[in-house]
Amino acid sequence: MINTPFNYTGSKYKLLDQLIPLFDYSKPLFIEPFCGSFVVGTNVADKYQRILINDVISDLIGIHKKLINNPDDIISEVEKLATCKDSQEKYNQLRNSYNESKTPEKLWALMLSCTNNMMRFNKSFDFNQSWGKRGWTEATQKKVDDFVNHISKYKEKIYFSSVNFYDVPMNPNGMYYVDPPYTNTEAGYNAYWSKQLEIKLYNYLIILILIKPKLI
Ligand SMILES: C[S@@+](CC[C@H](N)C(=O)[O-])C[C@H]1O[C@@H](n2cnc3c(N)ncnc32)[C@H](O)[C@@H]1O
Asked: What CA–CA distance (Å, rounded) separates 84 from 133?
């Protein structure tokens, strides 16, 4: 199994052995309305004609898109930005800079530099995780290299979107892997999840089941 180079809350990396045998490989499309780290799609990219990954955090999708399609540019930019291991002031400047003018590069640098590498936002999508005294390491470089070597073989068939899950198109030819936030956990992305969205998800899944894709 290939991991993606993010320490992502809720990543299903450790469950891949159990999940992957459950998927329907007769469908041509693999669709992840809540892709997070994209570790699930990464490990079935060879099995489908097209992969659609979506997440409401647009800069997270921006990271995936740039890392898959144009890795050298984002890697060199993030290496320069993720240099606040020894300076909380520098970290605060990076975080302020992201909150004033958001880019995928700044978000990834913050993910590498913050406490436990766990991104955390407030309801306005401002990044509010504390300084983690960490940054880009040799281990990061190795994970990035392994991921890029693997995923570059499939880049033509990966499509990206950043919308609310209920705007992800319903397609009867899709194998949908649906992994939403769980309200009883402490994940950072729960800040913008709500009971109302759970009801919308329930309704979305009911319609999805009626149009008969495969759903897990
Ligand atoms: C449990 S995590 C998915 C983890 C993913 N399967 C993995 O292996 O890394 C849930 C994801 O849903 C995203 N999310 C939260 N609200 C959303 C919404 N309204 N629409 C789409 N994505 C949303 C979060 O940003 C988070 O990345």
From this structure: 7
* 193: CB partners within 8 A, 6+ apart: 180, 181, 183
The string of DSSP codes covering 14-29 is GGHHHHGGGS-TTSSE
C-alpha torsion angle, residues 133, 83, 191, 186 (rounded to 10) = -30
Mean pLDDT (whole number) for 205-215: 80
Q: Is the CB of residue 12 below 6 angstroms from any atom belonging to ligand 1?
A: yes
- For 151-160, write each residue's pLDDT tens digit: 999 999 999 9
Pocket flag, ligand 1, residue 193 (CB < 6 Å): yes
Nearest CA, atom 18, ligand 1: 164
Ligand 1 pocket, residue 11 CB under 6 Å: yes
Q: Which atom of ligand 1 is nearest to the CA of 39?
A: 8
Distance between Cα 12 and ligand 1 center (Å): 11
Contacts of 175 (CB under 8 A, 6+ apart): 23, 24, 25, 27, 29, 30, 31, 48, 213, 214, 216
Q: Is 43 exposed, middle or buried (0-12, 13-18, 19+ CB in 10 A)?
A: buried
Identify the helix (H) or strand (E) that includes residue 161.
Answer: strand 158-161
